[in-house]
Amino acid sequence: MDHSNKELASSAMNLVRKIEVMSNLKESLQSYKSMPDLEKSGKEFQKIIKTIDKELDQQQEWEQFSFHFDKVHNNYLQHLKDSYPSLSANDLKLCAYLKLNISTKEIAQLMNISVRGVETARFRLRKKFLLPGDIHLADFLIRFEGES
């Protein structure tokens, strides 16, 4: 189980790195494209930026990650969704990352939102779970078992 958790965490970190690299690459290409002598190359740069945008779309990576996550954690996400039907897809992502004890900064990169956005999402999750102030969200999610 520890080995599988380490693999999941490693997968998540690789995803963070990929997103960071692709975002930097996209930013560089956009600034390069705006140079006046490269106007004719605009269409080619636009094509490259479109390809990068596709790579930044994390849906496929998330589906693969959630499949392995549920396999390792006995259908954790499905049990969570069954117990709390109001959870959105982004809520479930956040729950998985919190269960793996990933930092807020890394979650922000994974979900392509600001750190403040992660904090807001955590607050909204606490409300959906009706958690009292003395229970930490991450602790609740780590201990959550659902119906077996």
Count of individual beta strands: 0
What is the terminal separation in angstroms?
17 Å
Largest sheet: none
H and E order: HHHHHHHH
Q: Give the mean pLDDT.
A: 82
| Whole-angstrom Rg | 18 Å
How much helix, percentage-wise, in residues? over 70%
Shape: elongated
What do these coordinates show?
The protein is an all-alpha fold. It has one domain (2-143). It is built from 8 helices and no strands. The chain has helices spanning 2-33, 42-56, 59-72, 76-83, 89-99, 104-111, 115-129, 137-143. The longest helix is centred in the N-terminal third of the chain and has 32 residues, at 2-33. The radius of gyration is 18 Å and the shape is elongated. The chain starts with a helix and ends in a 5-residue tail after the last helix.
Brief descriptors of the model:
single chain, 148 residues, 8 helices
Furnish the topology, listing elements before pairings.
Elements: H1 2-33, H2 42-56, H3 59-72, H4 76-83, H5 89-99, H6 104-111, H7 115-129, H8 137-143
Helix pairs in contact: 1-2, 1-3, 1-6, 5-8, 6-7
Short description:
By secondary structure, the chain is mainly α.
